[in-house]
Amino acid sequence: MLQMRPLPSVVRFTKILGKVAKLKHYSAVISLYNQMGVSRIGHDVCTLTILINCYCHLNQMGLSLSVWGKFFKLGLEPNVFTFNTLINGFLLENRVVQAAGIFNKMIAGGNCQPNVVTYGTLVKGFCMKGNNRAAIQLLKKMEEGACKPDLVVYNTIIDSLCKDTLVDDALNLFSEMMCKGVAPNVITYTSLIHGVCKLGGWKEAIRLLNEMVSKNIYPNVRTFSVLVDTLCKEGMAVEAEGVVEMMIERDIQPDTVTYSSLMDCFCLRGETGKAKKIFGLMLSKGLMVNVVSYSTLINGYCKRKMMDEAMMLLREMSRKGLVPNTVTYNILVDGYCKVGKLGDAQKLFSEMQAYGQLPDVQTYAILLDGLCKN
DNA sequence: CTCGACCACG
């Protein structure tokens, strides 16, 4: 497209950026944008909004704001998408004050009023802060006002309540939502199933599964992964494997998350051999193995005090371009502490910082515990 | 052509 003459319009380029962004390849979008030779092709409100959204998802709010500045330099008017994107970006980084600032700018501006996505984003922000009460308060305001909550807003709160094991509240809200004529979808049911499973409500989970299918809403890979994970955490490895087989029979392909749950299951039972086999299966199926998959397996070896194998995996993931994170290092530091190799633990503690992975409160708790017990 | 909701690791 860059070599075509005349050059395709900015809209045609932006359509592609939008598609790539939808696939969550945010860095790719930025590099494509940079290759566009922006001055010749130009950019419009959509292009810049996509770009802001990519920086938001990469936790680069500084760069998001520099794109935001371009609007004014170019005399472009940010629209409701742009405002919503920025608010979401700040909330993702827990910067509530800045998010509120953008929200106020939006209202003050006059030509761009908050919509259901704006309020839904704020609801999510409250939920992320653990403030379900405020989220529900805002929901009530929406129900009474002109901007009625939609399925996404209800799902956000239902999921948050489930995560806080307030499943009864979630089920009540679920009924309320349906009374108001908002129909649930697979996401609603997956959150609820997750919630009841966490409380050991297997019967209730089966009831919800039957109910959703009776409404022609079908469980997907995420729904099944929740079931697999719950069975695993209950130590029911055989049953978990059974669910995975059921998925394959139904032509729902287990993904990286499904298999990582299963790996964790075997790791917790000390069956690292079986876990490693699943890891190999993932690779042979061409599934992405990511930092979490590696960390899960590393955790398995650490728990069995097999530190050499764990370290080999750490080096292997780095060779593949995967960046071990704080959780990965915490697992390993804990492993070394537990086998009494405090020197190695401290070496990793330095290494993680050298690689820009900052220790968190858990890292220090692990090290303190290790030092005290030795 | 642009925004918000569901699954795995310490």
UniProtKB/TrEMBL annotation:
Q: Which residues form a coiled coil?
A: none
In which domain of life is the source organism classified? Eukaryota
Question: By what name is this protein known?
Answer: Pentatricopeptide repeat superfamily protein
Q: Which UniProt keywords apply?
A: Repeat
PROSITE patterns, per this entry? PPR
Source organism: Prunus dulcis (Almond)
InterPro entries assigned to the protein according to its UniProt record, in alphabetical order: PPR_P_subfamily, PPR_rpt, TPR-like_helical_dom_sf
Q: Does the keyword Repeat apply?
A: yes
Q: Which PANTHER family match?
A: MITOCHONDRIAL GROUP I INTRON SPLICING FACTOR CCM1 (PTHR46128), TETRATRICOPEPTIDE REPEAT (TPR)-LIKE SUPERFAMILY PROTEIN (PTHR46128:SF358)
Query: So what family is this one in?
Result: Belongs to the PPR family. P subfamily.
Describe where the PPR repeats fall, as residue ranges on this chain. Answer: 44-78, 79-113, 115-149, 150-184, 185-219, 220-254, 255-289, 290-324, 325-359
> Does the keyword Repeat belong to this entry?
yes
> What Gene3D superfamilies does this protein's entry cite?
Tetratricopeptide repeat domain
Q: Which NCBIfam families did the record assign?
A: PPR
